[in-house]
Amino acid sequence: MATFGHITRERCAQLGRALTAAGLSWTANGRQDKPEFLTYTATDAHGREWSISPATSNQITPSRPASIWQAQCTEPMHRSPVLSARAVVDHIRAFPA
Questions:
Q1: Which alpha helices (H) appear in 1-97, and where do they start and end?
Q2: CA torsion, points 79, 85, 87, 90, in degrees to nearest 10?
Q3: Which of 93, 95, 49, 91 is CA-nearest to residue 70?
Q4: Once rounded to an integer, what is the mean pLDDT over residues 27-46?
Q5: d(C-alpha 7, C-alpha 14), whole Å
Protein backbone atom coordinates (compact mmCIF):
# COMPACT_ATOMS: atom_id res chain seq x y z
CA MET A 1 0.00 0.00 0.00
CA ALA A 2 1.27 3.46 -0.87
CA THR A 3 2.09 6.01 1.79
CA PHE A 4 1.67 9.75 1.52
CA GLY A 5 4.44 10.94 3.83
CA HIS A 6 5.64 13.35 1.15
CA ILE A 7 2.56 15.54 1.59
CA THR A 8 3.29 18.21 4.19
CA ARG A 9 1.55 21.43 5.13
CA GLU A 10 4.38 23.35 3.42
CA ARG A 11 3.95 21.40 0.18
CA CYS A 12 0.21 22.11 0.28
CA ALA A 13 0.94 25.79 0.93
CA GLN A 14 3.33 25.84 -2.06
CA LEU A 15 0.58 24.53 -4.32
CA GLY A 16 -1.89 27.10 -2.98
CA ARG A 17 0.57 29.92 -3.53
CA ALA A 18 1.34 28.73 -7.07
CA LEU A 19 -2.37 28.52 -7.95
CA THR A 20 -3.02 31.98 -6.52
CA ALA A 21 0.03 33.52 -8.26
CA ALA A 22 -1.18 32.07 -11.58
CA GLY A 23 -4.55 33.77 -11.11
CA LEU A 24 -6.49 30.50 -11.03
CA SER A 25 -9.55 30.19 -8.82
CA TRP A 26 -9.19 27.17 -6.58
CA THR A 27 -10.43 25.35 -3.52
CA ALA A 28 -9.05 22.55 -1.37
CA ASN A 29 -11.04 19.91 0.43
CA GLY A 30 -8.92 20.40 3.57
CA ARG A 31 -7.86 16.77 3.98
CA GLN A 32 -4.17 17.35 4.72
CA ASP A 33 -4.70 14.99 7.65
CA LYS A 34 -5.56 12.19 5.17
CA PRO A 35 -3.49 12.93 2.03
CA GLU A 36 -4.92 9.94 0.19
CA PHE A 37 -8.19 11.90 0.12
CA LEU A 38 -6.66 15.36 -0.45
CA THR A 39 -7.78 17.17 -3.61
CA TYR A 40 -7.60 20.68 -4.94
CA THR A 41 -9.96 21.93 -7.61
CA ALA A 42 -8.79 24.68 -9.95
CA THR A 43 -10.55 26.37 -12.83
CA ASP A 44 -8.44 27.38 -15.83
CA ALA A 45 -8.90 30.43 -18.09
CA HIS A 46 -11.13 28.35 -20.42
CA GLY A 47 -13.53 27.41 -17.61
CA ARG A 48 -12.32 23.82 -17.35
CA GLU A 49 -12.18 22.27 -13.91
CA TRP A 50 -9.01 20.45 -12.89
CA SER A 51 -8.64 18.09 -9.95
CA ILE A 52 -5.15 18.16 -8.41
CA SER A 53 -4.14 15.43 -6.00
CA PRO A 54 -0.95 14.03 -4.51
CA ALA A 55 0.85 11.23 -6.28
CA THR A 56 1.35 8.00 -4.39
CA SER A 57 4.81 7.14 -3.12
CA ASN A 58 5.38 4.65 -5.91
CA GLN A 59 4.79 7.41 -8.50
CA ILE A 60 7.44 9.74 -7.07
CA THR A 61 10.92 9.63 -8.53
CA PRO A 62 13.63 9.94 -5.84
CA SER A 63 15.62 12.26 -8.12
CA ARG A 64 12.62 14.66 -8.28
CA PRO A 65 11.23 14.73 -4.72
CA ALA A 66 9.30 18.00 -5.24
CA SER A 67 7.29 16.45 -8.08
CA ILE A 68 4.35 15.16 -6.07
CA TRP A 69 1.22 16.58 -7.75
CA GLN A 70 -0.90 15.27 -10.59
CA ALA A 71 -3.74 17.15 -12.30
CA GLN A 72 -6.69 15.69 -14.14
CA CYS A 73 -9.29 17.31 -16.36
CA THR A 74 -12.37 15.51 -17.66
CA GLU A 75 -13.21 17.85 -20.56
CA PRO A 76 -11.17 16.92 -22.48
CA MET A 77 -9.97 13.81 -20.63
CA HIS A 78 -6.36 14.48 -19.68
CA ARG A 79 -4.03 13.54 -16.83
CA SER A 80 -0.73 15.34 -16.30
CA PRO A 81 2.50 13.64 -15.38
CA VAL A 82 3.58 13.90 -11.74
CA LEU A 83 4.93 17.44 -11.37
CA SER A 84 6.03 20.03 -8.82
CA ALA A 85 3.51 22.60 -7.60
CA ARG A 86 4.68 25.30 -10.01
CA ALA A 87 5.00 22.88 -12.93
CA VAL A 88 1.49 21.46 -12.43
CA VAL A 89 0.08 25.00 -12.42
CA ASP A 90 2.06 25.84 -15.58
CA HIS A 91 0.74 22.65 -17.17
CA ILE A 92 -2.85 23.67 -16.43
CA ARG A 93 -2.33 27.22 -17.71
CA ALA A 94 -0.62 26.07 -20.92
CA PHE A 95 -3.10 23.30 -21.77
CA PRO A 96 -4.60 24.17 -25.17
CA ALA A 97 -8.15 25.40 -25.50
A1: 9-21, 85-94
A2: 80
A3: 91
A4: 90
A5: 11
